[in-house]
Write a structure and sequence with these properties.
A hairpin with a 4-residue loop joins strand 7 and strand 8. The N and C termini lie far apart (46 Å). Helices cover 39% and strands 21% of the residues. The longest helix is centred in the middle third of the chain and has 14 residues. With 184 residues, it is α+β, with helices and mostly antiparallel strands.
Length: 184
Amino acid sequence: MEDTCNTISNGKPNANAMTSISVLDLFKIGIGPSSSHTVGPMRAAHDFAAGLDGKQLAAVQRVEIRLYGSLAATGIGHGTDRAVVVGLMGERPDRVDPDHIGPSVDALRRSGTLMLAGKRPVPFHWERDLRLLPISLPYHPNALRLTAHGAARTRRGPRCSGSGRRCAAASRAASRRKAPCPAA
């Protein structure tokens, strides 16, 4: 009887081989309930903040978050606002302690200070700096724009949090148009 767990037999792939799939291949680790409203935007925010070099980070005076379309319509109920904010604080969706999110957001709301990339304190006023825009963008229903306003110059997204050709193409197109980028 042939062993169907071997992927190579006599130097050739075994057509009857079984493939092992991990639970991690099926599911993304991160906060929920919707990965397109939390994991993607949190990753985009983290990558945006991490992409600020030392001089840019030091020059940041204010950060602005704009959520568009579906993220604006249902994002607060799905936790997009909190996910983006803690992403800007340097947290990653696959490494954040979910019990850390609430206290971090509460502390930010009380103090009015966001620790950008976990390093730089910048003023953050929830009502002013987090904008929900019910505009549906033509290339993706889940879009966001992150802007770091600084003394020398402003650095804007787009940041694309997903992976693959569709997201990369949307990111390149958004960069050419200076438009927001899809979050997932």
